[in-house]
Here is the input.
Amino acid sequence: MDIQNRYDIILSILLLGNSATQQGDRMEKIYSTSPGKGRYTPSGAALHGLLGLAARLEGELAEAVPRGAGTLLDQLAGGLPRTVAELARDRHVSRQGVQRLANDLGRQGLVERLPNPRHRRAPLLALTERGLNRHRARSTGEAERLNALARGLDPSEIRAAARVLGQLLERAGPPAAARR
Here is the structure.
């Protein structure tokens, strides 16, 4: 799970407000008392409800928050050209998946391959001018959407949610792509 996906989950907790709390309470009751639903502890049942809300919000934010190619554009806009392997490591995803995205972005004229003086067979990827313009436009739209969603929320609550989710991710262990 890359860092952007972590923020998606955090926003799911905060943006649904009272309905999220009510749904979480309802899910906790269902999953801690219903036969055949598993034997969740109260915390486990609450976490199950949270994950359902996170999935729901992920769908709502699909256009506003970068996925795949958008995240790759973000990484490349951050500085120096990088190899596919470096980009994949930073996102905790497979190199092959990043390579497919890079190939697609290259066909669209958004990234270019540059010679790598350290490794002849691993070219560096860099944004083209068109790619930089696409990144800027997408980033502006993302900021507007997320700022509107976060309006009125206490930043300390968002940070608290981030801490809890960070702890859950640590307990979950390495991302699936890293275990392969």
Remarks:
- The chain has nine helices and two strands.
- Residues 1-6 have pLDDT under 50 and may be disordered.
- The radius of gyration is 19 Å.
